[in-house]
Design a protein that fits this description.
Number of helices: 3
Order of helices and strands: EHEHEH
Helix content: 40-55%
Mean pLDDT: 78
Structural class: alpha/beta
Strand content: 5-15%
Number of strands: 3
Radius of gyration: 12 Å
Strand order of the largest sheet: 2-1-3
Oligomer: single chain
Low-confidence stretches: none
Length: about 80
């Protein structure tokens, strides 16, 4: 699982909430880093802030779709 969030406070909140559910998410600080990390690890779930620096949501969606793993399902919830 990957959490992509540029705000440090929101990063901490998201990670702590997921840890309480027994999960250990990886963390990306911006959209470009999230795409790079997804290229290394085929995450099944990505929580992402849609208004982050470095790459807008449309460009990120295209990058993720191009790199998606065979077992992952791509969806954008707004």
């Amino acid at each position: 699982m990957l959490v992509a969030e540029d705000n440090i406070v929101n990063q901490k909140v998201a990670v702590r909430m997921l840890e309480k559910l027994g999960m250990r998410p990886d963390l990306a600080a911006d959209g470009r880093e999230a795409v790079d990390m997804f290229g290394l690890v085929p995450y099944d779930l990505i929580f992402m802030d849609c208004q982050m620096p470095e790459m807008d949501v449309t460009r990120r969606r295209g990058k993720f779709a191009a790199r998606k793993a065979r077992s992952a399902t791509w969806r954008l919830w707004r």
